[in-house]
Amino acid sequence: MASGFRRFGGALRGDGALVKKVAILAWNCWLDNLGSRFYAISIIFGIVILYISLLLGMLAADQELRVLLDFGLGFIELMGLAGAVFGAATAVLREIESKTIYLILTRPVSRSQYLAGRFLGLMFSALVSMLIMAVLHLAILFFKGWTWDRAYLLAFVGIYFKVLITAAVTLFLSLFSSSVLTAMIIAAILWTLGHFLPEIRVMTPWARPALWPLAGLSYVIPDLQLFNLRDRLADPQWPLLAWTGYAFVYSLAWLMLAGFWLRKKEF
Amino acid sequence: MAAEAALSFKSVTKTYGYSHLGHITYSLGVENLSLEVKPGEAFGLLGLNGSGKTTTFKLALGLLKPTSGQVSMLELSQVGFLPELPYFYPFLSPEQSLRFYGRLSGLTEAELAHRVAHALEAVGLAGQRRRKIRELSKGTVQRLGLAQAMLHDPKLMMLDEPVSGLDPLAIKDFRDTLASLNEQGKTLIISSHSISELEKLCHRVGVLKEGRLVRLIEQRQWRQASGGLEGLFVETVRS
Taking CB atoms and an 8 Å cutoff, what residues of chain B touch A17? Predict the structure, then answer.
């Protein structure tokens, strides 16, 4: 491990080759996603759904703005998540199937660099698609007379962190399961469970040995409820740094596991 | 002191394990393979389907890990690899692809400019450098495969079925390019079903049969043999 840190430090101090190669791979992944039909469809679908939220808002009469705000952010999350989970599930598997990975890993590129590049490219793609939807959402909100609230930005960042965490878990699962569909289904289950962790912990007390596996699992599953800032808009003191740290540490942990698995993988 | 081998296998065995419903079955990739390829040599790997040629390449390049034995090779920055069917990102052009792979190989921006132009020129792709790869024919993609393998001026080039699916004119162009690279001092390791190509290009050929290296044939041996390399190969695999 110490030698790993030394290599990493050396690359940063030296010509930055480590970081540069990750950036090259990330940019390529972004271009790859940009041409993906699924990526385009997820953005178009997101825009259509935002339009539907506009119609729903009209039905809500005096609560129109609130409905527009909640549905819009909810749809941005779902579409961002769908794109990122699909992207993460296929990020490496598609390259293995198409054998494009051969021409990368047979160059002086480590598997960790490769994985980091693919993931960063994927997260950049997710950010761009979510920003496009958010800009449209804001345009609708302003058109309806909404006034800017900093909480919107926090809610958006919270959603992005949920997408980040779920994509990191999915990337790991995709290497572990070797099946896109399985990885996506498990990721969807984890995402759902991640919103009910306090409830799961209440239902699975450590005092009952039969429930230990479930109780243990509740500490492995990401606590996505933490990032539901739409539920916390009234709590401006929420520790921003803490949930930022949680998102990065949690994602990094799953990426390191994915890296460990990829290093063992044969092609 | 003898020059360090460009590639060396010492008693390498690779077995694949396939798991189905908890039951693992094993199949042999290569068995007890010992081989040394000298710098500057053009070495051919010949064998029937499933004889272990691609496994040997993947072991050398680190895509597979040996079950036992030791593989050593030059650093990857000094190696160029052309897979059997080179797959590229269809949304890039040949020029963009080479820039991408060149950067990953550690070339500087200044080096990239002339290396990319030179590689495209060498494989006859200069006129198509800006077309999208998805629009290119199989033969053209194969040419691009060779360009990416030679792009960073490697000392060792590993070519898996380099002329597979090419038309006769393209095969001749490929052969001429590879011969020229070998004359410049590059080590070539070529895996192929095409006996005539190996006969024309290689100094030495190893015959793989069911994962084992059963014979090493020197150029002078097939030149002296009445049936050429083909006769020696058939004799070896049928024995």
Answer: 106
Across the interface, whether the CB atoms of B64 and A267 are under 8 A apart is answered yes
Name the CATH code of domain B1-74+155-239 (choices 3.40.50.300, 3.30.70.1790, 2.60.120.10, 3.40.630.30).
3.40.50.300
Integer Cα distance of B113 and A108 in angstroms:
20
pLDDT cut 90: percent of chain B above it = 78
* Average confidence (pLDDT) over A51-64: 76
- Nearest CA of chain A to the CA of B80: how many Å? 8
Q: ipTM score here?
A: 0.90
In chain A, the number of structural domains is: 1
Of the candidates A24, A102, A30, the residue with the CA atom closest to the CA atom of residue B106 = A24
- Ranges of residues in chain B with a pLDDT under 70 are 1-3
Which residues in chain B are contacts of A98 at CB distance < 8 A? 87
Whole domain around residue A145: which residue ranges?
Answer: 2-264
Q: Does A197 touch chain B (CB under 8 A)?
A: no
DSSP A29-40: HHHHHHT-HHHH
Chain A segment 96-155 residues within 8 A of B by beta carbon are 98-100, 102-109
Q: Quick check: B148 and B116 in contact, CB under 8 A?
A: no
Predicted local confidence at residue A177, as pLDDT: 79
d(CA A166, CA A168) in angstroms, rounded, equals 5
Interface contact B81-A103, CB threshold 8 A: yes
**In this predicted structure, what is the pLDDT of residue B224?**
93
